[in-house]
């Protein structure tokens, strides 16, 4: 009887000692399961926010506004540069003379007009974007004509920069003589063409990136929109991506 009682006591003691261990293991497993559920929910909610059309539209709005502000500031600075050559032209030219000086003034005046349009146009389009609700922005940008309108300040600035370079090429020739005129008319546009070349390289690399991303994820995001990667307004590329459900 004594032996039976002692063995029962030992079993009860073992059960009491193992019970807290089991409870701790169950609690740890439950906490771990809760953490996994929370992480899944958070990742799902994050992805749903990123794919939310309004979230994409907000990012696009910021990108468009930043682009318009940068173009407006650049156009204002270039207008001052073109105005300097317009108001400080040489009194008498050393190569062709008055006809070429008159052409220089007309070209500089046209450049200032382009920069004026770009500066004020960027401000007008900035206000236009601010007047569009976020849930309507993607629909507003779905028209190719609307995309061209938003790119007009960029186009006007590019034309103005080219005209300013030509005017400065004429100016150095009329200040230094005919050899400098040849040099200026060749060298000045080369500065512009070097920037255009850098622009094109960036465009081609973005196009390759889109194609590579599509190939890696086995999706089709490079369609007729993706093939026309924008040269002037790079935010237009993000509009094409957002149409496929990707965050801009």
What does this protein look like?
The chain is mainly α and 248 residues long. Helices cover 84% and strands 0% of the residues. It is built from eight helices and no strands. Helix 2 packs parallel to helix 5 and helix 2 runs antiparallel to helix 8. The radius of gyration is 33 Å and the shape is elongated. The termini are far apart.
Give a brief outline of the structure:
The protein contains eight helices and no strands. With about 250 residues, it is an all-alpha fold.
**Main sheet makeup:** none
Sequence stretches where pLDDT stays below 50 over 5 or more residues: 40-50, 222-226
Sequence of secondary-structure elements: HHHHHHHH
* Gyration radius from CA atoms, angstroms: 33 Å
End-to-end gap: 81 Å
Helix count equals: 8
Helical coverage, percent range: over 70%
Total strands: the figure is 0
Tell me the overall shape: elongated
Q: Round the mean pLDDT to the nearest integer and report it.
A: 76
Structural class: mainly alpha
Bin the strand percentage.
Answer: under 5%
Topology at a glance:
Blueprint: H1 2-50, H2 53-87, H3 98-130, H4 134-140, H5 144-176, H6 178-217, H7 224-227, H8 235-242
Helix pairs in contact: 2-3, 2-4, 2-5, 2-8, 3-5, 5-6
């Amino acid at each position: 009887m004594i032996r039976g009682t002692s063995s029962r006591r030992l079993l009860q003691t073992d059960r009491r000692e193992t019970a807290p261990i089991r409870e701790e293991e169950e609690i740890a497993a439950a906490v771990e399961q809760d953490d996994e559920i929370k992480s899944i929910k958070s990742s799902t909610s994050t992805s749903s926010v990123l794919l939310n059309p309004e979230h994409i539209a907000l990012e696009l709005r910021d990108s468009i506004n930043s682009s318009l502000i940068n173009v407006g500031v650049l156009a204002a600075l270039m207008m001052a540069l073109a105005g300097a050559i317009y108001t400080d032209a040489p009194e008498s030219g050393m190569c062709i003379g008055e006809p070429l000086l008159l052409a220089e003034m007309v070209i500089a005046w046209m450049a200032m007009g382009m920069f004026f349009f770009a500066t004020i146009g960027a401000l007008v389009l900035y206000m236009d974007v601010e007047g569009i609700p976020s849930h309507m922005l993607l629909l507003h940008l779905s028209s190719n004509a609307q995309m061209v309108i938003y790119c007009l300040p960029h186009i006007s600035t590019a034309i103005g920069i080219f005209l300013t370079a030509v005017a400065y090429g004429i100016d150095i020739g009329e200040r230094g003589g005919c050899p400098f005129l040849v040099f200026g008319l060749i060298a000045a546009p080369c500065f512009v063409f070097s920037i255009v070349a850098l622009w094109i390289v960036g465009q081609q690399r973005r196009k390759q990136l889109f194609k590579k991303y599509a190939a890696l994820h086995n999706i089709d995001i490079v369609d007729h929109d993706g093939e026309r990667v924008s040269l002037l307004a790079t935010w237009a590329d993000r509009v094409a991506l957002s149409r496929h459900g990707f965050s801009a």
